[in-house]
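Internal tracking record. Fields below are filled automatically when a chain is submitted to the structure queue. Please do not edit lines marked as system-generated. If the sequence contains nonstandard residues, flag them in the REMARKS field before resubmitting.
Queue: standard
Priority: normal
Entity type: single polypeptide chain
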Amino acid sequence: MTHHLNRVVIVGTGFVGSSYAYAMVNQGISEELVLVDVNKEKAKGEVMDLNHGQLFYETPTNVWHGTYDDCKDADIVCITAGVSQSDEETRLSAVEKNTQITKSIVGDVMASGFSGIFLIST
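SYSTEM-GENERATED OUTPUT FOLLOWS
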């Protein structure tokens, strides 16, 4: 009998995504946590920070920087990516930008063969 590992992928490692990731490893919610971001260096830095704290977590979590291909075996994909509204733009224009970003991410995730649950942080 094989054991199914709980895998969560977080797309976006800004303030919201990194907060999600920290809360997940701190509470032992999943066995695997994958961070995906267009800024690969930012995601890798968040992974290093989370892994440095592993000694203090009640339940160890395998955390790594990944790609959309890692979504195939994920139970949940949490999308936290997006752009903030600038002072010069309306909320509506920011929503339009974020809609396009989300559509792109969902397309890439689904192309991996993902069949889990999407959690969208807006």
